[in-house]
Amino acid sequence: MAFLRSVATTATAVAAIPAALAFSSLSSSPSSSFPRFSQSPKSPDRFGLLKTFATSPSVLLMDHKHSSQPHAVLPDLLTEYMVDMKCEGCVHAVKNKLHEINGVKDVEVDLSNQVVRILGSTPVKTMTEALEQTGRKARLIGQGMPEDFLISAAVSEFKGPDVFGVVRLAQVNMELARIEANFSGLSPGKHSWSINEFGDLTRGAASTGKIFNPINEENTEKPLGDLGTLEANEKGDAFYTGVKEKLRVADLIGRSVVVYASEDKSEHGITAAVIARSAGVGENYKRLCTCDGTTIWEATDKDFVSSKNLGNVSPPGIRLKENGNRILPPDSRPIPPSSQKQD
């Protein structure tokens, strides 16, 4: 912010030169780690795709005529995965598979950190499926540019008991947000959905307030939080991709996403989930969950109960390793005899 202020005196300008040169030197170095993430000494270098992203014309010039429709063409976004790669052969397999997908502009792989960054308009669901088709485990760890926005991404998870799903929101620029969602457990047909004022779920969707609409948007025909319509197939599954103008992800944290029984929003929704901050690119390189000792590769969809069709699910607080052994929460693990107090 200091460089955006007017320089009052020549002395001030001269004093600012060393800092400016230092910043320029850091930004131009292809091997430098971004200083914001210095707590991780081996944080992957992200400058390659950052430069590509900054100059991508689709970030600046877009046709918004489909912004309220499902399955709209998405704007380019930087997405980051952790992929279980062991060798250069893994790298080639991952790159080749991703480059086959429509909408992928560039792929950058950091083998030492097992990180894959993808620039493009492809939905998360499609990229995740492609990575898994290579026979390797893949976990989404970041989306959006934290350097450009205070909060670049958010997520809302529906965990049942009837409706399951995930909604992802990412800031593309100050006037545009990208939205992706997938649901299961809905009744076949059309369902309205919206972002509501509050994240109070004490009475389910009934306690989430009105549809979110900032003060400066009160004169519009449709509230800003109106997300349009989902269409569930005969199995009750719905998938949505689209963009929303004037929607700022940072304003949505702590509010909720609500799904309705039909296109009629006059009644309370049938389900709701709180919107939480999600990691941007470069903000989440953890490999171990400190709450229960689960590694990123041991974690599965069953841990988070994100789908109705997952079959048997472990009880709360218990994770299953791939070999079938249970991992108990730290506070429920037996205390070794040597560490027990003696009377």
Explain what you see.
The protein is 17% helix and 28% strand. A hairpin with a 2-residue loop joins strand 6 and strand 7. The chain has helices spanning 10-28, 47-54, 57-60, 88-99, 124-133, 301-304; strands at 77-83, 104-110, 115-120, 138-143, 153-159, 164-173, 176-184, 189-196, 202-205, 226-232, 238-245, 256-259, 271-278, 319-320, 326-327. It is built from 6 helices and 15 strands. With 343 residues, it is an alpha+beta fold. The termini are far apart. The longest helix is centred in the first third of the chain and has 19 residues, at 10-28. Its cofactor is Cu(2+). Residues 1-22 form the signal peptide. In the C-terminal section; belongs to the Cu-Zn superoxide dismutase family. Residues 76-139 form the HMA domain.
List strands and helices in order, with pairings.
Layout: H1 10-28, H2 47-54, H3 57-60, E1 77-83, H4 88-99, E2 104-110, E3 115-120, H5 124-133, E4 138-143, E5 153-159, E6 164-173, E7 176-184, E8 189-196, E9 202-205, E10 226-232, E11 238-245, E12 256-259, E13 271-278, H6 301-304, E14 319-320, E15 326-327
Task: For the structure shown, list the relevant keywords.
343 residues; alpha+beta; Alpha-Beta Plaits; Immunoglobulin-like; eight-stranded antiparallel beta sheet; four-stranded antiparallel beta sheet; disordered N terminus; disordered C terminus
Please tell me what the overall shape is: globular
Could you give a short account of the major beta sheet? Answer: 8 strands, antiparallel
What's the CATH C level of one domain?
A: Mainly Beta
The CATH superfamily of one domain is Superoxide dismutase, copper/zinc binding domain
* Count of helical stretches: 6
CATH fold label of one domain: Immunoglobulin-like
Portion in beta strands: 25-35%
Gross CATH architecture of one domain: Sandwich
Distance between the termini: 61 Å
Low-confidence stretches: 1-42, 53-69, 310-343
Radius of gyration: 23 Å
Q: Number of DSSP strands?
A: 15
Structural class: alpha+beta
Question: H/E element string?
Answer: HHHEHEEHEEEEEEEEEEHEE
Strand arrangement in the largest pleated sheet = 10-8-12-13-5-6-7-11
Mean pLDDT: 76
Kindly state the percentage of residues in helix. Answer: 10-25%
